[in-house]
Design a protein that fits this description.
The complex is a heterodimer of chains A (about 325) and B (about 290). Chain A is an alpha/beta fold and about 325 residues long. Chain A is built from eleven helices and 15 strands. Chain A has one domain: Metallo-dependent phosphatases (Purple Acid Phosphatase, chain A, domain 2). In chain A, about 35% of the residues lie in helices and about 20% in strands. The model of chain A has no long low-confidence stretch (mean pLDDT about 95). Chain B has helices at about 5, 50-65, 85-90, 105-120, 135-140, 145-160, 180-190, 210-215, 280-285; strands at about 10, 20-25, 70-75, 95-100, 125-130, 165-170, 195-200, 240-245, 245-250, 260-265, 275. In chain B, the strands form two sheets. Chain B has a nine-stranded mixed β-sheet with strand order 7-6-5-4-3-2-8-9-10, with helices on one face. Chain B has a two-stranded antiparallel sheet with strand order 1-11. In chain B, strand 4, helix 4 and strand 5 form a beta-alpha-beta unit. Chain B starts with a helix and ends in a 6-residue tail after the last helix. Classes of the chains: A alpha/beta (about 325), B alpha/beta (about 290). Chains A and B meet through strand 1, helix 1, helix 2, helix 8 and helix 11 of A and helix 2, helix 8 and strand 10 of B.
Chain lengths: ~325, ~290
């Protein structure tokens, strides 16, 4: 090992120590310094995006939106009952029908019978294309281990017909509720497996994103944790959470979103908690020999996997 | 370099500015680690501290571009006397991560950081670097006595209720195995981290590390056909930029390479960047990102 160089008054340039002034002068020769007008044009170019040409559905007075079914057909039945109770004009599902839970094919007839309008999650994309993994976007080896277990189980237990149906679902939808135009996506408008958590999805990012997408509200899922931000511009960013497993809060309830046309052209947003027969789900998971770690989450409301992807604040309130 | 070779250098497009980095304490550090990719040390003033007012100018610019998150590194960020004020201002706008060596994390500072975190809507992450699970493995790289001081800082964070991400470079070969990782977790649990978080970083053969581990071989450089489906979206330079006291650079790794400088303001740097440096090869091959 060579001795660490003393940089007093010096910088390393091309492997040699040179006077600092020489290094800084060399740096000044690189990079651009644009005029103000050019800078504004560059900034505008970066944030501009064309329209997506997706037809707008509706208008509706009240819609119910959920995501992340994760093969939880008990949770799905409960949310469909809730839709009737709320007299929702339309029901939307933001994808990730499989994974985690038992007997994935069971959710299909429930969705079609209730006329649920679905979009693809990363799970549907992977299953429909025969991809080798769920493309959930985890980075930790333990998280990936459990993701692989549930993906392989789900892939084995879905018929080719169900997978083909998943492949035909759209990637995004646009819905009018009252005067507001809602954009429905799985992860984010940019990427199917982007994680939009509450404490890492800031206002400046959302304002630009929703402006680019020319929508009044953006609804997503994928992270498993629900939140709602009303932006200074009056737009809404909503993660509807998931109905497949609890929200890592120590309760066994799951979450969905209810959106209603409000007074003065606004949007009323609720993210209600939903009871369902979680004990029956746990029993069925055990009968299918799914990991006990998953069953524990269903019975306690605390996540035991997918923890490494959580931001600092979400991890701090987590049990594990 | 011949024209033919120049034509073969691929260029990466910035698709959005998701991550803005600040070389907040420049290349000044209270350690001089043998694998430091920017050769930071107590005497290295290649890049100076960034002031709060300078940081604020770049924050304003980044907000208009729809930035998602902020990262602070050095050197050692807490050597910058304005670091806490900078962090407080940043946390009003978005989530922030500070890459620190842990040596300046005394009880009082940790308590202030916790308050700052609690006041913000956004996540504050502290990332503490360590290079082994004992003095014998860590200290030859990070400096005599550093292991004990780093763990003291980690313990202070834990006691304040902050859960840092611990980063280990692949210089520490043990982290490659599940057993090695588990041993790390045990050491961290012993020091008060109930839910230890670990990030493994590849090493770049530049800066002090090229002295320690050797230079790149000539073939280790990117070609246009290396792009994935014709795109370079997997590289962090497709979604981030680095601010130093001497301008805006393409990434945190190339700040000591004059060609890494892209402009004065962020708006000057929104164009393509040629992936000519051999460190670009490491990012591509290792799937490396400096983000958590």
């Amino acid at each position: 090992m060579s001795k660490f160089p003393d940089h007093k008054g010096k910088a390393t340039l091309d492997g040699k120590l040179v006077p600092l002034e020489e290094f800084r002068a060399e740096c000044k020769r690189h990079g651009r310094s644009l005029e103000d007008g050019e800078r504004a044009a560059e900034a505008q170019r970066l944030v501009s995006v064309g329209g997506d040409g997706v037809e707008v559905e509706g208008p509706f007075e009240r819609v119910l939106v959920f995501g992340g079914v994760y093969s939880n057909h008990y949770g799905l039945s409960a949310v469909l009952e809730a839709a009737e109770r709320h007299r929702a004009d339309a029901i939307y599902c933001l994808g990730d029908l499989g994974g985690f839970g038992p007997k994935p094919e069971k959710v299909w007839p429930l969705l079609t019978a209730a006329g649920v309008r679905c979009i693809q999650g990363n799970y549907e994309q992977s299953l429909a294309t025969g991809h080798e993994d769920c493309n959930c976007g985890y980075t930790d080896p333990r998280d990936n281990h459990f993701a692989e277990l549930s993906y392989n189980y789900t892939a084995r237990n879905c018929s080719d017909e169900f997978k083909a149906w998943m492949g035909g679902l759209p990637e995004r939808r646009r819905v009018r509720v009252g005067d507001r135009e809602l954009l429905l996506v799985h992860g984010s408008p940019r990427q199917v497996n982007e994680f939009l958590f509450h404490t890492t999805t800031p206002v400046p990012f959302l304002e630009v994103l929703l402006e680019q997408e020319r929508c009044d509200a953006m609804l997503c899922t994928h992270t498993g944790l629900h939140w709602h931000r009303r932006l200074p511009s009056g737009r809404d960013a909503i993660n509807v959470g998931v109905i497949g497993r609890p929200a890592n809060d120590g309760t066994t309830d799951v979450r969905y979103a209810l959106l209603e046309a409000g007074g003065n052209g606004g949007l009323r947003v609720e993210l209600p908690a939903l009871r369902y027969d979680h004990e029956a789900l746990a029993a069925e998971m055990r009968a299918e020999s799914l990991p006990e770690e998953f069953v524990e989450t269903i019975l306690t409301g605390w996540w035991t996997t997918c923890l490494e992807i959580l931001p600092a604040k979400e991890r701090a309130t987590s049990k594990f | 370099m011949s024209n033919l070779q120049q034509a073969e250098i691929p260029a990466v497009e910035l698709r959005s500015l998701d991550t803005l980095w600040f070389q907040v304490s420049g290349t000044l550090c209270n350690l001089a680690c043998s694998h430091c990719l920017v050769s930071a040390s107590p005497t290295n003033r290649t890049h100076e501290h960034l002031s709060l007012s300078k940081v604020e100018g770049y924050l304003d610019e980044a907000v208009r571009l729809g930035v998602r998150e902020f990262y602070f590194t050095g050197g050692e960020p807490f050597l910058n006397p304005e670091m806490e004020a900078i962090l407080e201002r940043t946390l009003e706008l978005g989530p922030a991560t500070v890459l620190t060596n842990g040596l300046l994390l005394n009880t009082e500072r940790c308590a202030r950081l916790k308050q700052m975190s609690d006041r913000s809507d956004y996540s504050l992450d502290l990332r503490v670097s360590i290079d082994g699970y004992d003095s014998a493995s860590n200290d030859p790289i990070r400096g005599e006595g550093s292991f004990v001081r780093i763990l003291k800082g980690i313990g202070n964070l834990a006691a304040a209720g902050l859960n840092p991400v611990i980063t280990v470079t692949e210089v520490c070969s043990e982290v490659a195995s599940a057993k090695g990782r588990e041993r790390f977790f045990e050491v961290l649990r012993e020091h008060g981290l109930e839910k230890p978080r670990l990030k493994i970083l590849p090493v770049f053969k530049i800066g002090a590390e090229s002295e320690r581990g050797g230079d790149y071989a000539d073939w280790q450089r990117l070609k246009p056909e290396d792009a994935l489906d014709g795109r370079w979206d997997h590289l962090q330079c497709s979604s981030s930029r680095m601010v130093t006291a001497s301008g805006v650079w393409v990434c945190p790794i190339l700040i000591n390479v004059p060609g890494g400088r892209m402009g004065e303001r962020i708006a000057d740097t929104l164009g393509d960047y040629p992936l000519a440096h051999q460190a670009c090869w490491t990012c591509h091959v290792e799937g490396a990102t400096c983000r958590t």
